[in-house]
Amino acid sequence: MQKQALSFFISLALAFPPVALSTVEVGDARFSPTWQGPQHTLQIVGSGAMYWLFFEVAAGALYLPEGMRYTAWTSRSPKRLELVYFREVKAEDIVRSSWKGLRNNLSANELSALRPDIDHLHQ
Question: Which terminal CB of the chain, N or C, has fewer other CB atoms within 10 Å?
């Protein structure tokens, strides 16, 4: 289910880039400013929350290589998406919301280029 939310949370992360390298708080979720993997150190470049009516459903943070701007999330580079769910969410609801968020934030050409990768995540 986490992979299915990728596109939705990326659109949220693009909308809310952090301003300081301290713990990033999104509602009840807290994210580290960096993530150390076996081969890469990534930095948080954006975060956001998903709401249904007045209820916080989930929060997410997008990590990219140091120095890479959040606008480069579509590149073929290492990346990490951390998700925290606060309520039970159906996978098909996340997929539907993800597509809506992507259509609202990307051009038709950008979305067309990403579609094979996104479809793979939603399988």
Answer: C
Structure tokens at 76: 């073929």
> CA–CA separation, 59 vs 66, rounded Å?
22
Please state the φ and ψ torsions of residue 23, each to the nearest 5 degrees.
Answer: -55, 130
- How far apart CA 5 and CA 103 sit, in angstroms, is 15
Tell me the C-alpha distance between 9 and 28, whole Å. 16
Q: How many CB atoms lie within 10 A of CB 72?
A: 13
What's the predicted TM-score (pTM) here?
0.66
Q: Across the 123 residues of the chain, what is the mean pLDDT of every consecutive 10-residue run?
A: 53 53 83 91 90 86 85 78 86 84 88 82 69
Instruction: Round to the nearest angstrom and report the end-to-end CA distance of the chain.
Output: 10
